[in-house]
Automatic annotation (TrEMBL):
InterPro entries: FAD-dep_OxRdtase (IPR006076), FAD/NAD-bd_sf (IPR036188), MTOX (IPR045170). This is FAD-dependent oxidoreductase. It comes from the Bacteria. GO terms for molecular function: flavin adenine dinucleotide binding; sarcosine oxidase activity. Its cofactor is FAD. Residues 13-353 form the FAD dependent oxidoreductase domain. Keywords: FAD, Flavoprotein, Oxidoreductase.
Length: 371
């Protein structure tokens, strides 16, 4: 396939706005199908202001919802194909242990069984023997194919593939306004106006600001989450990833990292912010809660923080994604802190919506009539 050249008049088949994980995967999918694509990103490559940075995300199938189990299984297959096709070293198999909430584990086990995914159910005593560095009460599920993926390597790999197929990538090109007509999208930037018959918007925390005047959105909240790295007591110990849901519904998860110790964080433990007004300061109460959890449940780590950072979640009330098309506008957002594992699949789903090869899944619609 001959790569496309940058359009002289800034007119393309598809605009993709936002070069995080979902946007980069969508641009790759569309460009690989022969479409003339422009990927617009407001920040420089490798920025840390959104939701797609860092050294580790978890690829796991353990959901109590069969829809997400099936999607995660397909995404995991796509991750392995992408890694094989590109030669990018992105994925490390670590396995994952999930505990807390007998009903949640029962539903997850049923969904995994229906998918044909490998897993084990272990008692508390059996788990303690296998992973003495963990101390999770009650039964646990172990999913051996769960893997760690490196976001900081993933985004450049996706963008290299998109460019290979002719995608025009414009970093440091913020979209200041988006106009949607019946059959065309216009993205206004300081570098000029870019047009296409369809625009895919994958701007995460900036979704409401860019689209509130364009389309009616459901309520979205942006939260600043904290991530902590704790040193293992035994550097040679083999850690699985883990997730534990307490009786009050709070979830703490973690995983081994390549060179940062054991990552430990709360899911949806942060406070509401605006994407441009966040302070990036780690919440002291969140740090205390994570260290308390480590002291009680993670005997294999030193209960001290060796490094910490923040990131942003964009959340819906039910934690379902928003993947929908309204006229020439495709929206892919609100991954609610669990979307990175689905990156290649989200790219395919959004590309299918953009070119009319699929209808939106009713679970992921905006809840408004299409134009």
């Amino acid at each position: 396939m001959t790569p496309h050249k940058a359009s002289r008049d800034n007119a393309y088949d598809v605009l993709v706005i936002g070069a995080g994980a979902a946007g980069s995967a969508t641009a790759w999918q569309l460009a690989s199908r022969g479409h003339r694509v422009c990927l617009l990103e407001r920040f420089e490559p490798g920025h840390r202001r959104g939701s797609s940075h860092g050294r580790s995300r978890l690829l796991r199938l353990t959901y109590p919802d069969p829809l997400y189990v099936g999607m995660a299984a397909e995404a995991l297959r796509m991750w392995h194909r992408f890694e094989s096709e590109t030669g990018a070293g992105l994925i490390t198999r670590v396995g994952a242990v999930d505990g807390g909430g007998a009903d949640r584990l029962d539903r997850a086990a049923a969904a995994l069984t229906a998918e044909g995914a490998a897993f084990e159910r272990l008692t508390e005593a059996e788990a303690a023997v296998r992973w003495p560095q963990l101390r999770l009460p009650g039964d646990v599920l172990f999913h051996p194919d769960a893997s760690r993926v490196d976001p900081d390597a993933t985004l450049p790999a996706l963008q290299r593939q998109a460019e290979r197929f002719g995608c025009d990538i414009r970093h440091s090109t913020p979209v200041t306004a988006l106009e949607i007509d019946a059959d065309r999208a216009r993205a206004h930037t300081p570098s000029g106006t870019f047009t296409a018959p369809v625009a895919v918007v994958t701007v995460g925390p900036w979704t409401s600001r860019l689209l509130d005047h364009v389309v009616k959105l459901p309520a979205l909240t942006v939260t600043q989450e904290q991530v902590f790295h704790l040193p293992p007591r035994d550097p040679s110990a083999v850690w699985p990833a883990f997730s534990f849901q307490a009786e009050d519904g709070a979830i703490v998860y973690g995983m081994p990292t390549a060179d940062e110790g054991v990552k430990v964080a709360e899911h949806l433990g942060g406070h509401e912010v605006t994407p441009d007004g966040r302070d990036g300061v780690v919440d002291a109460d969140a740090r205390r809660r994570v260290l308390d959890f480590a002291a009680e449940r993670l005997p294999g780590v030193e209960p001290v923080v060796s490094s910490e950072t923040t990131c942003l979640y964009t959340n819906t009330a039910d934690e379902d994604f928003l993947l929908d098309r309204v006229g020439p506008l495709v929206i892919g957002t609100a991954c609610s802190g669990h979307g990175f594992k689905f990156t290649p699949l989200l790219g395919r789903m959004l590309a299918d919506l953009a070119v009319g090869e699929a209808d939106p899944n009713p679970r992921f619609r905006l809840g408004i009539p299409a134009m």
